[in-house]
């Protein structure tokens, strides 16, 4: 870290009594926070604690109801993101703000206040992305990119603006461990140059590793501060939720039943030049099992989910089987009717319609088969009331924090929306559940709740398939583990027979049986 004497002010940014009201609901309630030059400062809290609302006020997306912001010793009013960037504040949002029809370079150009030729922007983005270990093709269209690649765009375009303070909201959620390590190296370099980072993450091991100080929010208030290097992940989680975080209990054995989900030599051509084709995928998930699929982002996870869910039916009917019936050419609705449930990776626009209330999102996922009859006629009002009651039940069971009785999905924090989406599928008690990245951007307490629910569903006799990049999550929930690499799936092995090292070899594309069978 650079010596303090080189800085003009002891505090780069300071907020005092910062408050944001939505009606009578205080999303942020009298928050005090200071960020010093040349530090990485963690902002911790449960989903819905007020973290996103706070940083949106710092970046000019939301106007505070009351309180003050001081930047480099001067009181400021940050009226817009452009004003924030002019001050020297950059931000990477948890949810992407990208135009899918545009290229990487075009998306970056839209966010830059400095007007440069597109070719120069592409050149700078390419150079920066390579330097930070976040490779990007500046000429690729966003629609053709994986979620991990889209996250790289957000990080690179924020860094291109050379900020004094960069706010990162869950920046490593979709990065590989290697990419995260490269990002951390970049953050350390920024810190050594006297720049500051406000770092939001639910990955507490990361916070311990890279952050100098931490401020903890709960229910919109600051409840504590600490040096995270002097804490443990368990103590940090306890500070966030105000209680001990329950451990996922996979104890006890469940009798394995019939095969409820199967892929038989499933192949599918890449849908875009940048996608991954599926190559002879074979898997079986029995009643009572949780098959977890590990892999580095961009190796066919999304394509596999789409093929299993029916979002993109495949040519050969027999290649996908649900409860013994060939469904390869059936769509997602037919598969839902057979008792299957699906949770995609992307919450907004894929798993939920942001502008619709939670009850309408429930209808879209469940009562699709006769929606007109469901919402019309003399019983329409009663049925609509039943939907709202079901939505409330899901929120109660999954502890979804929300500002109203039936708010728009987009008004929920990312973690709370994820809890609702997972709870929406679990509420049906599906015979088969396929989940892609179940706890992306979710706090420790909520992640534990979701993982336990997946384990309990399998114990009740369902077949559960979990696609995840989080190895801790995989080892917590899985009865069997397989690894996907370049569109090929390894054999599945008992979770207790694999180590992180052997999974790492499989992630690298080593598909031979020698390495894994050593574990038996």
From TrEMBL:
GO cellular component: plasma membrane
Transmembrane segments annotated in the record for this chain: none
InterPro entries xrefs: AAA+_ATPase, ABC_carbohydrate_import_ATPase, ABC_transporter-like_ATP-bd, ABC_transporter-like_CS, P-loop_NTPase
Keyword set, alphabetical order: ATP-binding, Cell membrane, Membrane, Nucleotide-binding, Repeat, Sugar transport, Translocase, Transport
Domain ABC transporter: 13-244, 261-511
Compartments where found: Cell membrane
Pfam families, alphabetized: ABC_tran
Domain of life of the native organism: Bacteria
The keyword Nucleotide-binding belongs to this UniProt entry's keyword annotation: yes
Membrane topology: Peripheral membrane protein
Molecular functions (GO terms): ATP binding; ATP hydrolysis activity
Entry annotated with the keyword Membrane: yes
Protein family per UniProt: Belongs to the ABC transporter superfamily.
Protein name: ABC transporter
Lineage: Bacteria, Pseudomonadati, Pseudomonadota, Alphaproteobacteria, Hyphomicrobiales
């Amino acid at each position: 870290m650079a010596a303090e004497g080189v800085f003009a002010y002891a505090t780069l940014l300071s907020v005092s009594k910062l408050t944001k009201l939505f009606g009578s609901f205080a999303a942020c309630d009298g928050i005090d926070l200071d960020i010093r030059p040349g530090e990485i400062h963690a902002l911790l809290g449960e989903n819905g604690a007020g973290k996103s609302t706070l940083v949106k006020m710092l970046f000019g997306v939301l106007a505070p109801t009351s309180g003050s912001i001081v930047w480099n010793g001067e009181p400021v009013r940050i009226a817009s993101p452009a004003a924030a960037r002019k001050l020297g504040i950059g931000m990477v949002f948890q949810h992407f703000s990208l135009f899918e029809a545009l290229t990487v370079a075009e998306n970056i150009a839209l966010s830059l206040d400095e007007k440069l030729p597109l070719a120069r922007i592409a050149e700078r983005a390419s150079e920066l992305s390579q330097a930070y270990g976040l490779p990007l093709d500046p000429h690729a269209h966003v629609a053709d990119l994986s979620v991990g690649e889209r996250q790289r765009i957000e990080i690179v375009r924020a860094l291109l603006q050379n900020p004094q303070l960069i706010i990162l909201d869950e920046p490593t959620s979709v990065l590989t461990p290697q990419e995260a390590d490269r990002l951390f190296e970049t953050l350390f370099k920024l810190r050594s140059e006297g720049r500051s980072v406000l770092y939001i993450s639910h990955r507490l091991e990361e916070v311990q590793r890279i952050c100098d100080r931490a401020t903890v929010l709960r229910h919109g208030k600051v409840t504590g501060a600490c040096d995270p290097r002097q804490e443990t992940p368990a103590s940090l989680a306890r500070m966030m939720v105000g209680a001990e975080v329950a451990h996922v209990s996979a104890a006890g054995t469940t009798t394995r039943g019939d095969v409820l989900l199967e892929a038989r030599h499933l192949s599918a051509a890449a849908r875009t030049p940048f996608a991954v084709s599926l190559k002879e995928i074979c898997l079986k998930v029995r009643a009572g099992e949780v098959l977890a699929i590990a892999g580095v982002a961009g190796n066919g996870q999304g394509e596999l989910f789409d093929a299993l869910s029916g979002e993109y039916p495949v040519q050969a009917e027999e290649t996908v089987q649900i409860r013994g019936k060939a469904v390869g050419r059936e769509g997602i609705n037919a598969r839902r009717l057979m008792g299957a449930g699906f949770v995609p990776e992307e919450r907004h626009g894929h798993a939920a319609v942001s502008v619709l209330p939670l009850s309408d999102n429930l209808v879209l996922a469940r009562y699709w088969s006769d929606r007109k009859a469901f919402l019309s006629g003399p019983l329409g009002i009663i049925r609509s009331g039943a939907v709202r009651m079901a939505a409330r039940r899901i929120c109660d069971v999954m502890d979804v924090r929300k500002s109203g009785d039936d708010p728009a999905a987009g008004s929920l924090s990312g973690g709370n929306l994820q809890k609702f989406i997972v709870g929406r599928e679990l509420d049906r008690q599906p015979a088969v559940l396929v989940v892609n990245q179940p706890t992306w951007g979710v706090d420790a307490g909520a992640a534990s709740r979701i993982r336990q629910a997946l384990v309990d569903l399998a114990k009740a006799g369902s077949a559960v398939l979990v696609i995840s990049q989080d190895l801790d999550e995989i080892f917590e929930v899985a009865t069997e583990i397989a690894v996907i690499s370049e569109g090929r799936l390894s054999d599945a092995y008992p979770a207790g027979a694999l180590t992180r090292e052997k999974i790492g070899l499989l992630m690298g594309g080593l598909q031979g049986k020698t390495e894994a069978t050593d574990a038996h």
